[in-house]
Amino acid sequence: MSPRQVFPALSLHAQALQCGRGGTVLGRPVDLAVAPGTALLLRGPNGAGKTTLLLTLAGVVEPLEGNFALRGWDPDEGPVLHFCGHRNAVKPRLSVRENLQFWAQVNGGGGLAVPQALEQVGLDMLANLDAGYLSAGQGRRLALARLLVSPRPLWLLDEPTAALDRDGHALVGRLIDGQLDAGGLVIAATHDAIALAGPGRATTLTLERAP
To answer: Can you list the positions of beta strands (E) in the chain?
Structure first.
């Protein structure tokens, strides 16, 4: 491993993976391969199955056909992934700091301390504020901070830049770069461009609606 690599060399592969919900097919079958230290950006129109593909890879939704596998991970090493959905799962009557402390307890620590994570996402000055007073963009930043306090090698991100301003978009790029530098994987469904540190770090898969 290089000095910057934290995670084992994992790779994610899928073949003829058909996703859907309630037996309804969403999108065409997909093949994909994501190597260590790289990102896959999912694009496509609404209803093409981007979120459903993420939920399938997370193990929440069963695939209709095909298969996928995460290679190189020992289940005894603990949880392997974070799924960050389009809902922020913020508890409005807890403070910003208490929200992140709660998620660190649920997901396990091992990453940045809560104050450092809040500083990195630009919420350190709001740590004592009830989370119910956050703007939509600030709520998104708080959700992203969960990725920092509990490191996991695979991030599945659903519209990570939703409600964020220009600085927030740059923040997402930095967070993904940091995950890739550590040898992790990122799969993100996004309608927005995400600027990363250099070429070759990300590939794009465009999903199509089922006929």
So the answer is: 11-18, 20-21, 24-25, 30-34, 39-43, 65-71, 81-84, 154-158, 185-189, 202-206
Whether 67 contacts 17, CB under 8 Å: yes
Question: If you write DSSP's letter for every residue of 53-89 in order, what string do you get?
Answer: HHHHHTTSS--SEEEEEEET--GGG---EEEE-SS--
Give yes or no for a contact between 185 and 154, defined as CB atoms under 8 angstroms apart.
Answer: yes
Q: How far apart are the first and last CA of the chain?
A: 45
- What's the rounded Cα separation, in Å, for the pair 128 and 77? 34
Dihedral Cα 97, 150, 138, 185, nearest 10 deg: 170
**5, 19, 135 from 31: Cα distances, Å:** 27, 12, 38
pLDDT digits (tens, 9 = 90+) for 61-105: 999 999 999 999 888 888 999 999 989 999 999 999 999 999 999
Q: How far is CA 26 from the centre of its chain?
A: 21
| 96: β partners | none
Segment-wise mean pLDDT, segments of 10 residues, the chain, 211 residues: 70 96 90 96 94 96 96 89 94 98 94 98 98 98 98 97 97 97 96 90 93 80
